[in-house]
């Protein structure tokens, strides 16, 4: 599947109903999701693999992994209402994904690859750390979306556990969604980071 084809399929994933700003519930843009997924696919980390989507939200990363040939896809999300949206999205794109309600820190098992778009930490400092910790505990390869400039914090945080093997810059468009938003569209510079356990 070509990157553009994947991106068009990702655009069919329904967004988050009544998002909670305190939890930084922003829908992963189709362009960013497709870029992360395509890079992971080209690296051999999706096709035929067991894939975990941590904080799966509406299921966009899980669904994309299934479309790219993952053997097994499991998404973990803390809110049942979002799991229901993810299940509908997966059904609408005719893919088989399992979505489980669980706290991120309590996720167990073993996977080949973790995909995630953790909170950037705008509302709660270090909100991404539980995601990083769990991801590196359950899989040898992790792809995540982080604020641009995070590498200077991320690199020492994962030292001794993992190494950064790839970084791709992208733009994360956030439309006006909440009363505190001042612009119709805000483009947040982000980095898609691949971490591999050592």
UniProtKB/TrEMBL annotation:
CDD domains: AdoMet_MTases. This is Methyltransferase-like protein 5. GO terms for molecular function: nucleic acid binding; S-adenosylmethionine-dependent methyltransferase activity. It comes from Methanocalculus chunghsingensis. Belongs to the methyltransferase superfamily. PrmA family. Keywords: Methyltransferase, Transferase. GO terms for biological process: methylation. It holds the Pfam family MTS. Residues 47-125 form the Methyltransferase small domain. SUPFAM superfamilies: S-adenosyl-L-methionine-dependent methyltransferases.
């Amino acid at each position: 599947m070509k990157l553009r084809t994947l991106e068009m399929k990702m655009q069919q994933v329904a967004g988050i109903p009544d998002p909670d700003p305190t939890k930084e519930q922003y829908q992963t843009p189709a362009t960013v999701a497709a870029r992360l997924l395509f890079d992971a696919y080209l690296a051999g980390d999706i096709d035929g693999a067991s894939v975990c989507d941590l904080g799966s939200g509406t299921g966009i990363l899980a669904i994309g992994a299934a479309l790219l040939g993952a053997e097994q896809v499991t998404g973990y999300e803390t809110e049942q209402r979002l799991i229901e949206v993810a299940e509908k999205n997966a059904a609408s794109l005719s893919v088989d994904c399992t979505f489980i309600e669980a706290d991120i820190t309590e996720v167990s098992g073993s996977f080949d690859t973790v995909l995630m778009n953790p909170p950037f930490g705008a509302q709660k400092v270090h909100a991404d750390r539980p995601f990083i910790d769990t991801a590196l505990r359950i899989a040898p390869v992790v792809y995540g979306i982080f604020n641009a400039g995070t590498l200077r914090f991320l690199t020492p945080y994962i030292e001794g556990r993992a190494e950064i093997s790839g970084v791709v810059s992208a733009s994360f468009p956030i439309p006006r969604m909440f009363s505190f938003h001042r612009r119709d569209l805000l483009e947040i510079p982000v980095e898609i980071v691949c971490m591999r356990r050592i």
